[in-house]
Specification:
It is a single chain. With 357 residues, the protein is of the alpha/beta class. It has 14 helices and 12 strands. The strands form 2 sheets. Strands 1, 2, 3, 4, 5 and 6 form a 6-stranded mixed sheet that branches. It starts with 13 loop residues before the first strand and ends with a helix.
Amino acid sequence: MSIFSHPAYDKHEQVAFYQDAKSGLKAIIAVHNTNLGPSLGGCRMWPYADDGEALNDVLRLSRGMTYKSAMAGLKLGGGKSVIIGDPRKNKTPELLRAMGDFINTLGGRYITAEDSGTSVADMHVIGERTRFVSGVIEGSEHGGDPSPSTAYGVFVGLKAAAEHRWGRSDLNGLKVSLQGVGNVGFRLARLLKEAGAELFVTDIFQDNIDRAVNELGATAVGADEIFDLDVDLFAPCAMGAILNDDTIARLKVGAIAGAANNQLAEERHAAVLREKGILYAPDYVINAGGIIDVYYQQQGDYKPAQVKEHIETIGTTMQEVFQRADETGDTTAHVADRVAEERFGHEDTLKTDTAAA
């Protein structure tokens, strides 16, 4: 299949591939859109089943970053990078330095940061070979790590979803199932626990589950069982494409609000959720806390209070999306897409708006 005809291509500006035999690095960088500024997005390291899965992921993720930054009101474009490999087994300083060399070849069109499978320490190693790295400023509230800000933003957006869905201003007694309790998911779970929610968790790593059970009093469930629970809200905080025909049919929740990117397997699944009466918080709107944090790090004048205030606007944005969807009868996903596209100047949107005028 040609890259230009790939289902997830969506008119990307640039897709670059890189292999370094010495370090074993196999990586892809995708730059989706730079209308609002340079593309910024995390570097994910994951044991993809094959190269095609990695390509599909980086294309979907980079597109999502364009929409995420636009909805968050940031002067950034959308980009993402993926390293093919198991971060617990294959990650080495040599591999990370080679990734820095790769990023540097794009001359600043793409700026990287932490993501699933990479850390602040990894960004420092990558930064030995390129200056186009973020999420490493020691003066930031969490030493450069955007994960706490991502979790806080999801928490704010989740509260907005609960208020819209059930008309409640608190989360006390709310039953929440979390798929993934890693860096972001665990922090979200802790915030939910402090707010009085009852937690049900699963993860591909047993130590993550054990931590949530031991420290937060969560109930552990099987990886597949998570979709069958009779709970109020489902929070996907792992990999994407988990909302599909099979899983949606099994869900018994009233709302979905989580940190994972690209939760919908296909665009049409937003309508399937609506028809089932499930309120869906578009992922790139609710999980923008991390990119907001990294953006302020890039500006060189990081003020925690200012960052927190910006992150808290996620709640207002979510309410606006929910309200507009109610008024138009459209899906929340499509409403969010339209607003984002208006902001970053998506060609198809501009043509449609011009024709309508």
